[in-house]
Amino acid sequence: MITAYISILRPSQWLKNLMLFFPSFLGGHLLEPGMPSAGILPFAAFCLVSSAGYLFNDIMDRERDLCHPGKRMRPIPSGKVSPFIAAVLSGALLCCGIVLAIPVSGPFLLLLLLYAAVSIGYSLWMKNIPVVDLFCVSAGFLLRMQAGGEAFHVVVSPWLFMCVLLLSVFLCAGKRLGEFRALGGSASSHRGVLALYPQVFWTGLCT
């Protein structure tokens, strides 16, 4: 049971929150005195809020996940964790993350709330809009990076912003192509937006 609750938090996905340290690292400031410790609260806040978002998304997707050969074994669709308990846990994680973000700075808190809003919006409807779904996922990385800049008082350069944007869109599009190929005819029953992309989109990704 404990394993199931740890699993729904998706701790492996917390690695994405290392994006917070990119501006400081690439700016050559990360190893300066006090810099690493300054990232503890921001990193913890994003881990809690991102887990809250993953929980909310799993609750919304529990019926679709039953059509996926791997995701149907996740704790919520498999029945190991009830949607109600998951919802309560998601709300608690969100609140705790916000509390941790308050001492960091006002702009950081605003970026964290914007990240939470994008995550919720993605789970509710934006994941069903072609192309918009790709940019929603990319926005998560960009908001992490901007929040890291605020936390460490480092200006994010336009070049870094564009590199992260293009790379994240590319990786997300590749993931969608992998799902489309792996699931075949049942792809749209798991992720409805896959049926809305024109064939030329998949052809373009393969060339």
Characterise the protein shown here.
With 207 residues, the protein is mainly alpha-helical. The chain has one domain: UbiA prenyltransferase (Tetracycline Repressor, domain 2, Orthogonal Bundle). Helices cover 69% and strands 0% of the residues. It has helices spanning 2-8, 22-26, 35-38, 40-60, 62-65, 75-78, 83-101, 106-124, 132-152, 158-183, 187-190, 199-206. The protein is globular, with a radius of gyration of 18 Å.
Descriptive key words:
12 helices; 207 residues; Tetracycline Repressor, domain 2; 69% helix
Shape: globular
**Uncertain residue segments:** none
Beta-strand percentage range: under 5%
As for the number of domains, it is 1
Fraction of residues in helices? 55-70%
Mean pLDDT: 86
What's the oligomerization state?
A: single chain
Supply Rg. 18 Å
CATH topology: Tetracycline Repressor, domain 2
- CATH architecture call: Orthogonal Bundle
Order of helices and strands: HHHHHHHHHHHH
Count of alpha and pi helical runs: 12
Give the end-to-end Cα distance, rounded to a whole number of Å.
45 Å
Structural class: mainly alpha
User: What is the CATH homologous superfamily assignment?
Assistant: UbiA prenyltransferase
Q: Care to count the β-strands?
A: 0
Characterize the largest beta sheet: strand count, sense, and whether it forms a barrel: none
